[in-house]
Amino acid sequence: MAAANVLPGPYNTSSAVPDWLNKGDNAWQMISATLVGLQSVPGLVILYGSIVKKKWAVNSAFMALYAFAAVVICWTTWAYKMSFGDKLLPFWGKAGPALGQKFLIKQAALPQTTQYFENGDVETLMITPYYPMASMVWFQCVFAAITLILLAGSLLGRMNIKAWMMFVPLWLTFSYTVGAFSLWGGGFLFHWGVMDYSGGYVIHLSSGIAGFTAAYWVGPRSTNDRERFPPNNVILMLGGAGLLWMGWAGFNGGDPYSANIDSSMAVLNTNICAATSLLVWTWLDVIFFKKPSVIGAVQGMITGLVCITPGAGLVQGWAAIVMGILSGSVPWFTMMIIHKRWTPLQQIDDTLGVFHTHAVAGFLGGTLTGLFAEPTLCALFLPVTNSRGGVYGGSGGIQFLKQIAGGLFIIGWNLVITSIICVVIGLVIPLRMTDEQLKIGDDAVHGEEAYALWGDGEKYDATRHGVYADDTIHQKTSIGATQVV
């Protein structure tokens, strides 16, 4: 993504289709935004509600649903302008409403408008799409929403829902908008030439680091939940994962802000990398653990999607395969080997391993973009003149270092700001559920349960239904029958 040239102007009330509007680009942008929205609602709502223990299905799904709704209101009221508006600081824009009625994104007089910023020696090309500002606001809104929902994956099964309701607008305002403006909205990292095509840093690295940090402050799940946390519906989890995968066509394909050749390349690269990563992760499970894991395959799919995101429209197909091999193996190694052997990582309860699937994979993708970004595709992305990956020589080595520096900025900012937000919320309301809520789950927190397993909607009654489903143990009787004890 890059900064958009947003200019005020009166709307032509005589026609809903002004002369400058490119209906094809506008249609693709709205479709892309819808695809990204479907990744969250229902995609991650279904995935979260299915991948957790049954007693947390409602709470996990609701955390995602609430975050989506809250971000929509906060984004249009003040946060969009903080990410894509006028500069307040080198890393932050001025807050203000963006309700889409009075402003348009117009084409400048020349196809490519070259501008010089601050010291005059950094050349940046401005993106000038042919569609209404409302399309841009909504497209960027669903990106902001999915970032908070991904972050929630680190906190499932113990965060106080009321604390989460406070956390969402605060983190959106003081963390997400900084990364978005710095890298996409015309901030200092964008001017410097750090490339983040579709959110490897702004979305995935930030959500992974922030989720891991928040998990430290909230504390771990109950001992029973940490020791045994089976998915309540693997098949439904795969449905949510499938929505996430297919929705990534809009996630990466919409970021040229146009239905052009770059968007097509981005969609193809996205699927190549995701498929490669899934296969590599699965084969590593088979080689080292003797059986393929369905959840592992989903994790490999996600790391591939995350890794290609910062470079989807900047690399060639062969590079997408290489990135898929690395995204299926490096996060696998950090999650399955390093995490299990390094005590500091084990002490922080990252419920769904968001640190590995998003922070590790996002930083990996950003640095690999610094190696594999093809010069011609970089020119289509319109960052800084003569940008290229390290394997193409010239200034490629500098680009690789820029990518590392940009990632370190996102990591540092999220560590500090997320910690401050959690501490401040903790002064007002407990970050963590009560012991009773942790023991009972959804029924105690929401007064609702995910499945009416014991009859026509009746609540579970131990005196009538026997042991609780999550704690059933099957044993063989003396005559070979299976009984539940």
TrEMBL record:
One term under GO cellular component: plasma membrane
Chief localisation class: membrane
Keywords: Ammonia transport, Membrane, Transmembrane, Transmembrane helix, Transport
Top-level taxon: Eukaryota
Pfam families registered for this protein in UniProt: Ammonium_transp (PF00909)
Topology of the protein relative to the lipid bilayer: Multi-pass membrane protein
Family annotation (Gene3D superfamilies): Ammonium transporter AmtB like domains
InterPro entries xref list: Ammonium/urea_transptr, Ammonium_transpt, Ammonium_transpt_CS, NH4_transpt_AmtB-like_dom
Any GO molecular function: ammonium channel activity
Subcellular location per the Swiss-Prot or TrEMBL entry: Cell membrane
UniProt domain Ammonium transporter AmtB-like: residue ranges: 27-451
Signal peptide boundaries: none
Membrane-spanning residues: 27-49, 61-80, 136-156, 168-189, 201-219, 231-251, 263-282, 294-312, 318-338, 359-384, 404-429
Similarity remark: Belongs to the ammonia transporter channel (TC 1.A.11.2) family.
Protein name: Ammonium transporter
